[in-house]
Amino acid sequence: MSTMHKNVVGPQVRKRRYNLDLKQAELAARLQVLGWEIDRAGVSKIESQLIWVSDFQMLYLGEALKIPPVELLPKLDPAKRLGENIAKLRSKRLPGLTPSHFAPNREPTKPQPAP
Predict the structure, then answer these.
(1) pLDDT in tens, 49-62
(2) How do residues 91-115 score in pLDDT, each as one tens digit?
(3) How many angstroms separate the Cα of 61 from the Cα of each of 5, 45, 71, 105, 111?
(4) What angle do CA 56, 85, 1 make, to 5 degrees?
(5) Closest CA to 14 of 108, 112, 109
(6) Domains of the chain
(7) Residues 6+ apart with CB under 8 A from 17
(8) Residue 77 has pLDDT above 90, yes or no
(9) How far is CA 90 from CA 5, 8, 24, 73, 97, in A?
(10) Which of 34, 42, 87, 102 pairs with 112 at a CA distance of 20 to 30 A?
(11) Max Cα-Cα span within the chain
């Protein structure tokens, strides 16, 4: 059974944070400097799509992640109807990263190059 996700930006936040080599606590600290009262657990809940993200919060996230906030939105398939795109988003978690990138209760580990 599919879980109802509360935001669509979480996977992009996680990917961008991962690409910047930031820990969740470091992203939370950046957001706090900008004026958002959030901690590491809050960042985790956003990335896991467990909490709603407002438009104002997207502005904070974009600034902290050094990207335009619109880049936090997922790419939609223009060949499909909006309802189909939304259904796909609701059933999908963490596109672009596989579970092997993450250990339980730990920060993501980067894949090591082959010797």
Answers:
(1) 999 999 999 999 99
(2) 765 444 444 444 334 444 454 555 5
(3) 18, 14, 10, 23, 25
(4) 95
(5) 108
(6) 10-98 (1.10.260.40)
(7) 24, 27, 43, 47, 65
(8) yes
(9) 6, 8, 23, 13, 17
(10) 42
(11) 45
Three-state SS letters, the chain: CCCCCCCCCHHHHHHHHHHCCCCHHHHHHHHHHHCCCCCHHHHHHHHCCCCCCCHHHHHHHHHHHCCCHHHHCCCCCCCCCHHHHHHHHHHCCCCCCCHHHCCCCCCCCCCCCCC
Residues 37 and 81: beta-carbon distance below 8 Å: no
Residue 90's CB: how many other CB atoms inside 10 A?
Answer: 14
| Residue that has been written with the tokens 């599919």 in this structure | 2
- Asked if 12 and 60 touch (Cβ cutoff 8 Å), the reply is no
Token pair, residue 39, equals 């901690």
Alpha-carbon distances of 83 from 29, 41, 76, 87, rounded to whole Å: 36, 31, 11, 6
